[in-house]
């Protein structure tokens, strides 16, 4: 148990290092593009990269990882770099875009609503609406019963059926292979949905500095899951490895609500605040009694 806890701390550190590297890289790129980069800041980028490489390559971690592979994930020893990358992407994409989670669904809805109000481009509206409507369709598809119950091949009549997703996104990832383009689809869909969400986040806020900051946060949340593909305890560690992503999404939801309230009347603002307060109280109550 102590060994597992110690390894969990190591890979939590790996997540933090990945987020720090993403932050320093994006900030540096932004400053370079705007001609305001100070090369003294490169020290932070170098340090963050060195920390990430050290976490991935240090011999002590490698020895512990070998032990945990045999214990938790024997198939992991056969994974190459591409398989680990795919595992990280799928471990993010399936729970985030293709499973039902009220917090994630709320984010998709708020971003869709804000973008629809602030962007007049029809095609951009469609792109930024995809994460919300896809998640909603999957939810309703999972709650509906089969039609044509007594007819052979009736599953084909369920146009919103998503029962095959669990076969596509497995504990081994999506089994991505460079030599079989058909295996790229699931990974590309996840990345495309992430891009749609990032575009939506950027367009949702009037203050573009806020938009850029929140986009960076979203990318950091994604990378906190992506880096877990390089850990044999990607599944054994459970929900704890999603903590950073959850905090990021909570921040995005609160910022989106704040942005939405700017265009509301005083009465609607009060109603929104009342609703959020009651929702928070009910969430606390159910958390306490469900323990």
From TrEMBL:
<feature type="transmembrane region" description="Helical">
    <location>
        <begin position="122"/>
        <end position="141"/>
    </location>
</feature>
<keyword id="KW-0812">Transmembrane</keyword>
<feature type="transmembrane region" description="Helical">
    <location>
        <begin position="96"/>
        <end position="115"/>
    </location>
</feature>
<feature type="transmembrane region" description="Helical">
    <location>
        <begin position="241"/>
        <end position="259"/>
    </location>
</feature>
<protein>
    <submittedName>
        <fullName>Uncharacterized protein</fullName>
    </submittedName>
</protein>
<keyword id="KW-0472">Membrane</keyword>
<feature type="transmembrane region" description="Helical">
    <location>
        <begin position="39"/>
        <end position="57"/>
    </location>
</feature>
<feature type="transmembrane region" description="Helical">
    <location>
        <begin position="271"/>
        <end position="289"/>
    </location>
</feature>
<feature type="transmembrane region" description="Helical">
    <location>
        <begin position="184"/>
        <end position="205"/>
    </location>
</feature>
<keyword id="KW-1133">Transmembrane helix</keyword>
<feature type="transmembrane region" description="Helical">
    <location>
        <begin position="12"/>
        <end position="32"/>
    </location>
</feature>
<feature type="transmembrane region" description="Helical">
    <location>
        <begin position="212"/>
        <end position="235"/>
    </location>
</feature>
């Amino acid at each position: 148990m102590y060994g597992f806890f110690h390894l969990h701390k190591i890979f939590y550190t790996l997540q933090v290092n990945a987020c720090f590297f993403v932050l320093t890289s994006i900030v540096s790129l932004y400053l370079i593009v705007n001609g305001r980069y100070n090369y003294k800041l490169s020290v932070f980028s170098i340090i963050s990269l060195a920390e990430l490489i050290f976490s991935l390559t240090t011999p002590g971690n490698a020895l512990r990882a070998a032990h945990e592979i045999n214990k938790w994930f024997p198939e992991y020893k056969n994974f190459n770099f591409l398989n680990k990358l795919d595992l990280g992407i799928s471990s993010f994409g399936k729970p985030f875009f293709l499973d039902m989670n009220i917090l994630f669904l709320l984010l998709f809805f708020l971003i869709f609503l804000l973008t629809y109000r602030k962007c007049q481009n029809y095609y951009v509206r469609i792109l930024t609406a995809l994460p919300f409507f896809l998640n909603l369709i999957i939810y309703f598809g999972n709650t509906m019963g089969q039609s044509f119950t007594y007819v052979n091949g009736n599953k084909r009549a369920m146009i919103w059926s998503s029962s095959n997703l669990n076969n596509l996104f497995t504990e081994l990832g999506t089994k991505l292979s460079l030599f079989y383009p058909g295996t790229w689809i699931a990974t590309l869909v996840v990345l495309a949905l992430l891009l749609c969400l990032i575009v939506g986040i950027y367009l949702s806020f009037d203050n573009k500095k806020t938009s850029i900051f929140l986009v960076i946060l979203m990318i950091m949340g994604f990378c906190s899951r992506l880096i877990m593909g390089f850990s044999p305890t990607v599944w054994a560690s459970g929900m704890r490895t999603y903590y950073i992503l959850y905090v990021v999404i909570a921040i995005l939801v609160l910022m989106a609500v704040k942005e939405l309230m700017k265009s509301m009347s005083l009465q609607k603002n009060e109603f929104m605040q009342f609703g959020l307060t009651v929702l928070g109280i009910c969430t606390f109550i159910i958390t306490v009694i469900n323990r």
